[in-house]
Amino acid sequence: MRLLITNIAQLATMAGVAAKDGVGVTWDDLGLVTDAAVLIEDGAIRYAGPAAALPKHGPPDRAIDAEGAVALPGLIDPHTHPCWVGSRHDEFAMRAEGKTYREINAAGGGIRASVRHVRRATPDELAAACTGRLARMFALGVTTVEAKSGYALNTEGELRMLRAIAQAAARTDQTIVPTFLGAHAIPPEFDGDRDGYTELIVREMLPAVAAENLATFCDAFVEPGFFTLEQGRRILTAAKDLGFRLRVHADEFEPFGGAQLAAELGATSADHLMAVDDAGIRALAAAGVTATLLPATTLFLGQSNYAPARKLLDAGCRVALATDFNPGSSYTENLQLVLTLACTALHMTIAEAWAGVTYNAARALLLHESRGALLPGRRADLLLFDAPDVRAIPYHLAMSDLRWIIAGGQLYRAPTPFAQRA
Ligand SMILES: [Zn+2]
Fold this sequence. Notes:
Blueprint: E1 2-12, H1 15-19, E2 32-41, E3 44-50, E4 62-73, E5 75-77, H2 89-96, H3 101-106, H4 111-120, H5 123-139, E6 142-148, H6 155-169, E7 175-183, H7 194-211, E8 217-222, H8 229-241, E9 245-250, H9 258-264, E10 269-272, H10 278-287, E11 290-293, H11 295-300, H12 309-314, E12 319-321, H13 335-344, H14 350-357, H15 359-363, E13 382-385, H16 392-395, E14 402-407, E15 410-413
Parallel strand pairs: 1-4, 5-6, 6-7, 7-8, 8-9, 9-10, 10-11, 11-12
Antiparallel strand pairs: 1-2, 2-3, 4-13, 13-14, 14-15
The structure holds zinc ion.
Zinc ion (ZN) binds near residues 79, 81, 249 and 324.
């Protein structure tokens, strides 16, 4: 299968971002090419560059006139919680009325509300819910998604969630990266016994998930009131011994040492980091742990304590961006919104923000050798936007000007933003 795309007014290959491994990204690293063409063969990029230098090739099976579109790598969302059922709009209403997190929890809200719903859900219900959310992300240009478990918090339920994620992954041309997050919260039956639940994760859940090969990564919520540094270390070390790669929910509420723990254990990514301190920032930079920032969460919670992106970047950290899509603190599938928030709320440059949703996000999932840049041999995940320039895409707040989506060489027309008379 050969697909040829011509008449691309501006192409961003991310070649410089890849060459720098995502650290110290500047405008020139976007690898911008004007009057470009892309040649795709058997699901991989064969050529992406000036149309004038297009190599000799056989007749294309499909040819697309991009009509002056802007082309970029497919977006990558490296932190989502898409597998749950049951709306939590009641909590949203309580927050709107000024109720605190503690009051909402006392009324049965928070993660435990989702745990009640997910424990009752059938595998098919979970897979259907997850499939629909991944499809919404795809319609917004997200061709790779990390997907976490963590709303069952018992062995059977966590396995059911991960199998549902695998079922949803089999139905899409997106790449889905599954993460085991049994250490998301303490389930009610372990109230007052966090060590007991930690042992259940280590002795029963992790080996069961590994035996079925259901997750690439293991994640843990290392925060006050959730898992201590010691418990996080115990869980993540056991996971590492079983062959999982690691990621950490770190320093969201206070500087708790989560960033340092991620660095100590050689985690791939440390996520949230709103409260990370200077020592944590230095540790992440020195260990090469990707800092994954989730500004939509801060926005959705009506807060202003955005992560110190500038400090992280200036200290030499690689910064990725994600939605944190989840039913409580960030109910949005829209990574393009996050791209804008990176520029407005995190004070990142547009080049840094684009790197954060492409190459650096691939790096946060250890997929940077095959995704996140439009270079020969890489998987053909790319987007064509109806926009005059790559800068015009984050400029358009919470709207998508996407025209075509290509995932693994498969061509999709993006949904039209216009209503159609019925
Ligand atoms: Zn999360």
